[in-house]
Design goal:
single chain; alpha/beta; Rossmann fold; six-stranded mixed beta sheet; four-stranded antiparallel beta sheet; 7 helices; 10 strands; 34% helix; globular
Length: 216
């Protein structure tokens, strides 16, 4: 479960999130809708515990922002897959190596990761692209690669920050359907977007944020 309880956060230059209350149940798919600069990314960063609230509490599973030790944050993040609008793929590594990267970080040996990586590449529809560098992939393929990289560690939660922002409408729709497939297999998905027309017809809860405040 993800739970924000009266969570607030302020940046030095003035923008703030104010008194955010939100609960996302295990296995739920929730869209966070709002214009650019409304606070969507800040909310996702709080859940990832990249930043901690100035007041209030953020709870993710067994972890709580008011009690988590700094050394425990990497353990929390092992249960979260993060996808952003900007792909952040390593330009000098091929698709296979990019997808495998999280397994290296958590200590898998090369012999143990090969089948997992190939299976995940197949899962997102990129079979045959294993040796392609990022600049040899389309935008949609790069975003699918990012999803594979997020899923490879079998996370409980996917946080998707404007993952369709750089994609054409058809490719964006296909990515949402892929996230729905992941969700149907039990993974919680929290996706931020400013594209209401893309998500309005999907059968998922939508929460709105404007000026750092959630609208009910």
């Amino acid at each position: 479960m993800i739970k924000l309880e009266n969570a607030s956060y302020s940046f030095k230059k003035g923008f703030s999130l104010s008194n955010i209350d939100l609960t996302i149940d295990d296995g739920e798919f929730v869209f966070l809708i709002g214009p650019t600069g409304s606070g969507k990314t800040t909310m996702l960063r709080l859940i990832y515990m990249n930043i901690l609230p100035d007041s209030g509490v953020v709870r993710v599973g067994k972890y709580s922002s008011n009690s988590i030790k700094k050394r425990k944050i990497p353990q929390l993040r092992r249960s979260i897959g993060m996808i952003s609008q900007d792909y952040h793929l390593l330009a000098d590594r091929n698709l296979f190596e990019n997808v495998a990267l999280p397994l290296h970080v958590i200590g898998y040996s090369k012999s143990d990761m090969g089948d997992l990586v190939i299976e995940m590449i197949e899962e997102v529809g990129l079979t045959g692209k294993e040796n392609h560098l990022p600049d040899e992939l389309s935008g949609g393929e790069q975003q699918r690669a990012c999803l594979a990289r997020a899923l490879i560690k079998d996370p409980d939660i996917i946080l998707a920050d404007e993952p369709t922002g750089n994609l054409d409408p058809v490719t964006a729709f296909d990515l949402v359907k892929l996230l729905e497939k992941v969700n149907a297999e039990g993974t919680t998905v929290f996706m931020a977007s400013h594209n209401y027309s893309l998500i309005k017809s999907r059968n998922h809860r939508i929460v709105e944020i404007h000026g750092g405040k959630l609208r009910s």
